Amino acid sequence: MNDVELMLPGEFGAATRLSPKALRLYAEQGLLVPVRVDPGTGYRRYHRDQVSRGRLIGRLRGLGLSLARVATLLPLDPPARQAELRAWLAAQEEQLRRRRELVEALADADRPVAGTPMLRARPERKLLCREQRTHVDGLSDFVADTEQRIRARLRAAGLSSDGPTLVYFHGLVTRDSDGPVEVAIAFTGSVEPDGDLRVRLSPAGTDVFLPVAGVDADFPDVLRAYDAVEVWLDAQRLTCVGSPVEIWPGTGGAAVDVTYPVATG
After folding, report:
1. What's the predicted TM-score (pTM) here?
2. Which CATH number is 46's domain given?
3. Does the N-terminal or the C-terminal CB of the chain have fewer CB atoms within 10 Å?
4. Whether residue 159 sits in one domain with residue 232
5. What is the tens place of the pLDDT at every residue in 12-52?
6. Which ranges in the chain belong to alpha helices (H)?
7. Which part of the chain is the HTH merR-type domain (predicted)?
8. Is residue 18 part of a domain?
9. Pick from 22, 15, 12: which is nearest to 60 by CA?
10. Mean pLDDT, to the nearest integer, of 94-118?
11. Which of 110, 72, 86, 104 is nearest to 219 (CA)?
12. Are residues 124 and 248 in the same domain?
């Protein structure tokens, strides 16, 4: 190796705009390893051919990429690397859009939801239902598909299929969280399960509910209705005893009722 082509860490750092700390870190991680290390003094030497790699690492790190992500990008040819970066950027823009959406929802958090939560009795009922994990972006399609299948199954059994759609949220459902969602329709009579459609008994009890108009029924605006119900529950010293349920359509022409089962005794 021609020593003329070797560079001291200071020279190499100046050429790549990388700090001594960064050079040590990248060497430890195997991203930018000196071509020569003196066994006695520990002095490191880099080759001039490594300058372009060092600059690339610096630019990638400047994007906020993790060391692991940088390591996967370095071996790629430029077109493949650019394609990966464009995909990463699109994901970042989508994440920023979601955060902006939630920030705007928080800004509207003090805007009151029309109506006041109320209590009502919940009868015992048999449900034909289907459960699946889904993000909020897939929620409408899952509910629509499941509702169609359940109503078709009830009609095939000669039963009424006109009841409202019950959507149970057994976990947090957002754009990033795919909590379990159960879609159900109450029925009277007898019907056999079919595939992932199952039958279960929902016990009688008491619900607190808040009708939500169409303008406030979509995510993330509907979160304000959940907040309003929860604040009301706290003020009334009532305890939620199960998963929240959205009932589509809601009471009195509302798009949806946001309901929570509560203990009243």
Report:
1. 0.65
2. 1.10.1660.10
3. C
4. yes
5. 999 999 999 999 999 999 999 999 988 877 788 999 999 99
6. 9-16, 20-28, 51-62, 67-73, 78-107, 139-156, 223-236
7. 6-76
8. yes
9. 22
10. 71
11. 104
12. yes
The parent domain of residue 254 ranges over 118-263
> Is 60 exceeded by the pLDDT of residue 120?
yes
What pLDDT score was predicted for residue 124?
Answer: 96
**Whether residue 138 is found in the same domain as residue 208:** yes
Contact 161, 155 (CB under 8 A): yes
Report how many domains make up the chain: 2
What is the phi/psi pair of residue 119, to 5°?
Answer: -100, 145
Answer yes or no: do 144 and 241 share one domain: yes
d(CA 74, CA 70): 6
Residues pairing with 130 in the sheet: 183
33 three-state secondary structure: coil
Residue 41 lies in a domain: yes
Q: What's the token pair of residue 196?
A: 């992932």
Instruction: Let me know whether 250 and 175 are in one domain.
Output: yes
How far apart CA 2 and CA 129 sit, in angstroms, is 74
Query: 136-177 pLDDT, tens per residue?
Result: 889 999 999 999 999 999 999 999 999 999 999 999 888 778
Give the domain CATH number at 138. Answer: 3.20.80.10
The predicted-structure confidence for 201-251, as pLDDT tens digits, reads as follows: 999 999 999 999 877 778 777 888 888 899 899 999 999 999 999 999 999
In this predicted model, what pLDDT tens digit does every residue of 50-105 receive, in sequence order?
999 999 999 999 999 999 999 999 999 999 999 999 999 998 888 787 777 767 66
Furthest-apart CA pair in the chain: how many Å?
Answer: 90
- Angstrom distance (rounded) from CA 188 to CA 180: 26
Same domain, 149 and 69: no
Q: Is residue 105 one of the residues assigned to a domain?
A: no
The string of DSSP codes covering 126-138 is: EEEEEEEE--GGG
> Rounded CA gap, 260 and 33, in Å?
59
